[in-house]
Amino acid sequence: MTAIAVTAAFGMVRHTQADPGHGHGAPAAEAVPAEGHGEPGGHPSGEHDGETGHGHHGTIEVPVEQPVPTVTLTVHPDPVRGWNLEVQTEHWVFAPEQVNQSSLTTEGHAHLYINGEQVTRLYSTWSYLPSLPSGEHLLTVGLNANGHEGLTHNSAPIEATVTVVVP
Fold it and tell me: What is the pTM for the complete model shown?
């Protein structure tokens, strides 16, 4: 596990690169841790109210013969307020035009979770998070197929988690 700590005017951001076998239920180290349904073709906004955790759409395992997709999440404090989220992937591409279509393990969209609760879908590599309340927050980005299934490798979700500490 590698970690980078960045101090900014808006608080502390701790990046944790999860290894492919890492599940987000694993405890993070103390010092260095590790839907918006309103889109066209999405679910009614109240359909998942109160749901927390990942995988309510099921999962899809990456085939053995396919290179395993990877994801990294970098949180950049915005100079004015909030945070800019940068999501980088390998062996997988964003395909927003294919949402709710046939699922492939090489394309789709991502789901953003804050403290284990899904808050939106991500359709590209950059996204803006305007604010977070004071405290420590786990931001997790998980890769999803077009049908919203979470991608897995060896039964572990393919995701990246960053801790953001807001004073």
Answer: 0.71
